[in-house]
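Moderator note: this is an archived Q&A kept for reference. The question asked for a predicted structure of one protein chain; the sequence and the answer are reproduced below.
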Amino acid sequence: QNSSHTKKKKEKKKTNSKSLEKMTCHKIFLVVSLILAVSLVNAVEFSVVDNTGDSAGGRRFRDEIGGISYATESLRAATDFTWSVFQQTNNPSDRRNPPMISMVMENGDYVAYSSEDKIRFNAGYLAGVSGDVRKEFTGIVYHEVVHSLQWDGAGQAPRMLVEGIADYVKLKAGYVSSDFVAPGGGDKWDQGYAVTARFLEYCSDFRSGFVAELNKKMRGGYTDGFFVELLGKDVNQLWREYKANYGQ
């Protein structure tokens, strides 16, 4: 009888073990499926082409910056960082989610610009950069990547505000150059680029995640009233207070 009882206990234990294994496998399957689903939602492809040939800027791009490999990683890192600033890392439905962000390195007469999620970068500019050329390159990449990921008020937002948000992300990433405008600088809030970036940084002191919320509001349109809605003050009043705060 004891032998029969022991045998039944062993069989029950074996059955429980198999059930546990099945549950564990099922949970692992669900987790893997979830990861794959998130990856598909988050998927943005990146492409870099080097058309610089043997130019001075092309050589700096490859030898000092890291060439196509570093440029591709910079596109990916800039995308992830921008999503974090816009508070979209876990909210993919809030994003402007392009299927691909590409970059062409070439020899031109400009610095860089983005159009339809394609960045064109002039290697000739890199040839004349003194100091940390990799940091300068990365900062420009971050700025241009933001243009592929931000909302622009369905074309209604001031262009210089759009540029200011791009420079704000660059500022928060720590890739600004030594000549970046100091806090309090500039003549008007929508002067753009570094001036507007510093102003947005000031506004963010009053409301954590301000730029993320502003970007979210700009998905379907734009009005200066967004500043009142988020901060309780007119944007021009905020600018006057900003300038006064820095004794200007």
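Archived answer notes: DSSP finds ten helices and four strands in the chain.
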